[in-house]
Amino acid sequence: MSAQPTRRTLLGAAIAVAGTGVLTACTGSDAGPDHSSMNHGAPSGTAAPDGYVAPDGPEAAAAEKRRGAGPERAVSLTATPARLDLGGGRTVRSWAYGDRLPGKEVRVTAGDTLALTLANHLPQSTSLHWHGLALRNDMDGVPGLTQRAVAPGARFTYRFAVPHPGTYWFHPHSGVQQDRGLYAPLIVEDPKEPLAYDKEWVLVLDDWVDGVDGSTPDAVLRELTGGGGHGGHSMDDMEGMDGMDGMQGMSGAEESPAPGGGPSRMLMGATSELLGGDAGDVGYPAYLVNGRTAGDPASFTARPGDRIRLRIINAGGDTAFRVALGGHRMTVTHTDGFPVRHTATDALLLGMGERYDVLVTAGDGVFPLTALAEGKNAVARALLRTGGGAAPGASVRPKELDGELVTAERLVPDASAVLAPRRPDRTVRLRLTGSMAAYDWAFDGKPYRADRRHPVRAGERVRLVVRNDTEMWHPVHLHGHTFALAGGAKGARKDTAVVLPRRSLTVDFDADNPGLWMLHCHNVYHAEAGMMTVLGYRR
């Protein structure tokens, strides 16, 4: 395999070009250890990049003012090396928000202003992206595009209005850090909540490699790109796994060493009809629900007959999950934070970055919430406990997994979430390109550069047509906006959608949030290899 430039390499080259205006919304967060008082984006006077709206420009500020400024919710968060318990006494060294996995949930009410101060105790620079939120552009958390990365020892306060209720999450947009323990739910409550339920269960799904037998996400990237990935923390920082019993085995993963140490994590031969063929690139040694392996799962306690709202988030790096609750039908109420017409189903399929809310009426007993790693011959799970009795074994596969399945294109938006009918003012056409063999993932055959932008203008209805010319599926995520599926008002509102091999995704969105916004594959390794691009608002 030929080495491919990574996002960090490309950013460095782009920023070095004088006069490009690539780096905007710059704080002083790289200059010293304490910048918690810097609540906003760039210093005043930052030039707009080449005729485009700057992330901290007056247009972005006006959009933020229209969102309003409700009560402030102050939160402190520390990114730090940590020893994490994955269950059964098995621990790994990784990076996390505090000492827990997932990170502690942040919960606000729609209309609030979130002021979250991130303290970076990591040996690398980092950032925070607020996945799914329509927020001010200079708080979107993309180093080299909307902010400077938060340097080791520094702090930065992300401060923005939170306009829409729903299920969201946050994670870094720095290299492959998301495939460590750096992620957490963000729940935005509806002050006029229309749903009636007794309890709420937030479920975060993940595929796990960091710290297992010396593996790191950076070593995985180097292996996939033929050595072209940027470095992470060294093997001296990682002590590996303290015991492996109960961890998922991965058929198809090679046993030869990966570049930089640890066994090979390259996955060959994993297939899924639902995903159109190749299921993924990475053979993970573990799959998690709320930070626990299937052999020692997390539990949620309720009473028989309780109506429970499940908020399900796929925080994985390379894995789609098929999800079912044994012994129960689910009613889908939301996808990616926005309400849909209630739809009953046995199972759901979530690509990386997608979220679904469902309602269930709890039965009497102990039931497995099973997340099948689609095409990878492994599961993650948690338990719903409403009565006595033994939990089903880790190998039990609920029949609901093979029952009726809902995917996003089947869903109809609730009347409150319908995108008003309108002819598109502009159509942006993009191709997903690349292959597993060369690991040259990109848009239109061009790996990511921050100064390569697809123009739109404020007030336009934009039609986005993404053609997948590859043999692999890709979950495509647009920052700062939601779009309607099916190229019109009839489709569910989403910010992340799966594009199957040799198929196209057509969506519409309103250009109502000025700035520079990333569009990318949410497979973290595809993105870091180059499958990212930018939609930029013209001035």
How would you explain this protein's 3D organization?
- With 539 residues, the protein is mainly β.
- The chain folds into two domains: 396 residues, Cupredoxins -  blue copper proteins (Immunoglobulin-like); 122 residues, Cupredoxins -  blue copper proteins (Immunoglobulin-like, Sandwich).
- It is 6% helix and 35% strand.
- The chain contains four helices and 33 strands.
- A six-stranded mixed beta sheet has the order 12-9-14-19-16-17, with no helix packed on it.
- The chain is globular.
Question: Which SSEs are present, and which pair or pack?
Answer:
Layout: H1 7-16, H2 58-67, E1 72-87, E2 90-97, E3 106-109, E4 113-120, E5 129-131, E6 155-161, E7 166-171, E8 184-189, E9 199-208, H3 217-224, E10 271-272, E11 277-278, E12 286-289, E13 299-301, E14 307-314, E15 321-325, E16 330-335, E17 338-345, E18 347-350, E19 355-361, E20 366-373, E21 378-385, E22 405-406, E23 426-433, E24 442-443, E25 453-456, E26 461-468, E27 474-478, E28 483-485, E29 493-494, E30 496-499, E31 504-510, E32 516-521, H4 524-529, E33 532-537
Parallel strand pairs: 1-4, 3-8, 9-14, 13-21, 18-22, 23-26, 25-33
Antiparallel strand pairs: 1-2, 4-6, 5-7, 7-8, 9-12, 10-11, 14-19, 15-18, 15-20, 16-17, 16-19, 20-21, 23-24, 26-31, 27-30, 27-32, 28-29, 28-31, 32-33
Q: What is the tally of helical segments? A: 4
CATH architecture heading of the largest domain: Sandwich
- Average pLDDT, rounded to a whole number, is 87
CATH topology tier name of the largest domain: Immunoglobulin-like
Roughly how many Å is the radius of gyration? 22 Å
Provide the number of structural domains. Answer: 2
